[in-house]
């Protein structure tokens, strides 16, 4: 089966209908035991030090892992992706552009998806067949999310399985079977409650240990914003592929994202929000809007190249959780 890399979540229904195995380059990069090797490849080829580690990682993955076809999201995601795909073209990699229109009008989303289907020579009916099959897998992801809120699944498990839905680990059937087994094990556990419930918003973290750390200090992340969006949790409200990608919050403006974030904060009884941003990313500026629009305390943490929390960030998170405990009147 042909492989195709993606720089972020794209309409994989189209790619699967076209006979591709979809590979999220981000997931290969961040889960690698030697992830710095990918960054080093990019910097040796001329990528500046003051460039987002994710962009360099994506480039390094393509070069080292021999990815020769890539879908690059040139509108609605990282502003550096447009330059990244130009460099990948220079290296002989075939690029398929995809755009989440800034207008966020349904007719514009439809046109973008129709163009994408034409690019891969697939019919909408075939894409809908794939979408309906993938939505059966998404049912299990919704269950994992609910088990997290109910105190059975951990924050890291929530993050891991939801973020993996960007490509279903390259095989949605195998991924579905894995989820079924994991859910059985999760349900067999004793429920575990934490005094503080946190939301994690922003791009998925470089530092995967953040989930275990916050649980070690008496808090739990029960909502992963962008990871949950990758799973398309509201698919039952969408009659077709057009509505599904129109309803997807991540690529659109911060005000649209905040509508769903506020809804989840209320439904999940969130005490505070961790807003993660990546160094050198324009999304860091959005923290100003986030803090002014949300009614719960927000802490902004920034990641760069490290794949684990540094001492300063741990100290800040501890102080944040202690403050939330004081607000709740919680005592040891």
TrEMBL record:
Keywords: Iron, Iron-sulfur, Metal-binding. Pfam families: HGD-D. Its cofactor is [4Fe-4S] cluster. Gene3D superfamilies: 3.40.50.11890, 3.40.50.11900. One of its GO terms (molecular function) is hydro-lyase activity. Belongs to the FldB/FldC dehydratase alpha/beta subunit family. This is Benzoyl-CoA reductase/2-hydroxyglutaryl-CoA dehydratase subunit, BcrC/BadD/HgdB. It comes from Caloramator proteoclasticus DSM 10124. The lineage of its organism: Bacteria, Bacillati, Bacillota, Clostridia, Eubacteriales.
């Amino acid at each position: 089966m042909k492989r195709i890399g993606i720089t972020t979540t794209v309409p994989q229904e189209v790619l699967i209908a076209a006979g591709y195995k979809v590979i999220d380059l981000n997931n290969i990069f961040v889960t690698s035991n030697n992830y710095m090797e990918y960054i080093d490849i990019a910097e040796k080829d001329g990528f500046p030090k003051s460039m987002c580690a994710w962009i360099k990682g994506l480039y390094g993955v393509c070069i080292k892992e021999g990815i020769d076809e890539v879908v690059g999201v040139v509108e609605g995601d990282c502003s550096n992706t447009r330059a990244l795909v130009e460099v990948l073209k220079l290296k002989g990699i075939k690029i398929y552009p995809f755009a989440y229109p800034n207008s966020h009008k349904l007719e514009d989303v439809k046109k973008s998806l129709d163009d994408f289907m034409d690019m891969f020579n697939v019919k909408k009916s075939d894409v809908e067949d794939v979408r309906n099959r993938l939505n059966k897998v998404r049912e299990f992801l919704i269950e994992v999310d609910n088990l997290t809120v109910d105190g059975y699944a951990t924050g890291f498990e929530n993050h891991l399985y939801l973020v993996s839905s960007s490509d279903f680990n390259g095989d949605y059937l195998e991924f579905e079977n894995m989820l079924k087994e994991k859910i059985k094990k999760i349900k067999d556990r004793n429920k575990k409650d934490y005094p503080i419930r946190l939301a994690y918003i922003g791009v998925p973290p470089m530092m995967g240990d953040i989930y275990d750390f916050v649980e070690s200090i008496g808090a739990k992340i029960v909502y992963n914003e962008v990871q949950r969006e990758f799973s398309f949790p509201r698919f039952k409200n969408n009659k077709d592929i057009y509505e599904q990608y129109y309803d997807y919050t991540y690529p659109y403006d911060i005000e649209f994202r905040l509508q769903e974030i506020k809804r989840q904060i209320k439904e999940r009884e969130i005490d505070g929000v961790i807003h993660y941003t990546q160094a050198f990313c324009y999304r860091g500026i959005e923290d100003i809007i986030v803090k002014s629009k949300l009614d719960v305390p927000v802490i902004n943490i920034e990641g760069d190249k490290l794949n684990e929390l540094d001492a300063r960030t741990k100290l800040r998170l501890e102080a944040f959780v202690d403050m939330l405990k004081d607000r709740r009147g919680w005592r040891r």
